[in-house]
C-alpha cells in the first residue's frame, strides 16, 4: 500500500469521528475518470472491496445513494423494484454535487450536504473491511462495512451486476 499523504479533514472524516466510526485514511494520485478501479490499483486493494458511492434519483427526482463494489455496476431495474419506485437513474454530475456537497470522483456517503436514503449492495456487508471515498478526490478511508448500516442506516439490496452486462 502506498505511503499515506496528509489529507486535511473533510466533511466525511468529521462525520466519521462524530459518529465514533474508526477509519484509516489513504491518499493516492487521483486520475479523472479512473473511478474505483484506478483507486484500487493505486492503493494495491481489491476492486471488489473498494466501494463506489453513487448518487442516483427516482422518477420524481428524489435523490438516493447506492454503495456498490468497484468491480460491479448497479442494475437500476432491480434496485427500483426492491425500493418500491418505478425507475432509478444516475444523477447528472452537477445535480449529484448539489445533493451531496462533494465533487464527483470524491463523493462520500458520510457527511453529505443533504440527507438521502442510502442503499448498500448486500454482499458488501460480508466483507471484513471496505475502502470508500473519504470526501475528497484521491482520498479513501478503510472501515468496517457494518458502519454503513449502523451509522448511516443503509438498507441492504441485491442489485449488483457485472461491469460487462
From TrEMBL:
It holds the Pfam family tRNA_edit. The keyword Phosphoprotein does not apply. Keywords: Lyase, Protein biosynthesis. InterPro entries: Prolyl-tRNA_editing_YbaK/EbsC (IPR004369), YbaK/aa-tRNA-synt-asso_dom_sf (IPR036754), YbaK/aa-tRNA-synth-assoc-dom (IPR007214). Residues 38-147 form the YbaK/aminoacyl-tRNA synthetase-associated domain. GO terms for molecular function: aminoacyl-tRNA deacylase activity; lyase activity. The keyword Lyase applies. Its EC number is 4.2.-.-. One of its GO terms (biological process) is translation. Gene3D superfamilies: YbaK/aminoacyl-tRNA synthetase-associated domain. Belongs to the prolyl-tRNA editing family. YbaK/EbsC subfamily. This is Cys-tRNA(Pro)/Cys-tRNA(Cys) deacylase. The lineage of its organism: Bacteria, Pseudomonadati, Pseudomonadota, Betaproteobacteria, Burkholderiales.
